[in-house]
Amino acid sequence: GAGVSQSPSNKVTEKGKDVELRCDPISGHTALYWYRQRLGQGLEFLIYFQGNSAPDKSGLPSDRFSAERTGESVSTLTIQRTQQEDSAVYLCASSLLAGGSLVGETQYFGPGTRLLVL
Amino acid sequence: QKEVEQNSGPLSVPEGAIASLNCTYSDRVSQSFFWYRQYSGKSPELIMSIYSNGDKEDGRFTAQLNKASQYVSLLIRDSQPSDSATYLCAVPYNFNKFYFGSGTKLNVKP
User: Fold this and answer.
1) Which end of chain B is more exposed for a tag (fewer CB within 10 A), N or C?
2) What's the gap in Å between the CA of A99 and the closest CA on chain B?
């Protein structure tokens, strides 16, 4: 497909379990972002990947959260020992170029993964 | 202090009116600003971006930027019920870390 895809679309898990969320960016997009959106809230920046550069992990809320990206393709966000406060929609977005340039900064969002931790 | 602030609303306007959505940001060096629209249960989609002081028009939408006041707004002319959504202001810091406002919910009444 032409857009950003994410899987699974919904995930229900028990407290303490690990979950892995997947994002397939638009082909050719070098930048990839993960956000968390709690119900009725704005988007909370989690992590940013740009090409082969070291990712900006400054938004990860705790060491239970980690993310990886292979080159300029798929990314996975892993949450270990999930807690109820992790329940949210996790959104992935990709863009053609990194922020700071005057073109290509538009972020294209995937449909999100709705995570519910019981 | 939040990096990007928006009035959460809801903002209610009658169909055909002008809706005005406002956003303030804290980082004086930010160079680009984005407005996203998010329908309930859906992902955000870009409405407009603006980089220079002044107005930028695209159809019924006008973005206004005032860097001295650290203020960016979005005007929607001839509002339609289909414009009813949450509008998110986004500002990149350090070129790659995007901060989003909490969003303003707009209701356009037929």
Assistant:
1) N
2) 4
